[in-house]
Amino acid sequence: MNLTLTAALTGFSTAFVLILAIGAQNAFVLRQGLRREHVFILCLICALSDAILIAAGVLGFGAIVELWPLFPQIMRYAGAAFLIGYAILRFKAAWQGDASIVTSGKAGPLWPAALTCLALTWLNPHVYLDTLGLIGAVSTQFPWGAQKWAFGIGAVLSSFVFFFSLGYGARLLAPIMQSAKAWRILDLGIGVLMCLIAVKLLL
Question: Can you tell me the mean pLDDT for 56-65?
Answer without folding.
Answer: 70
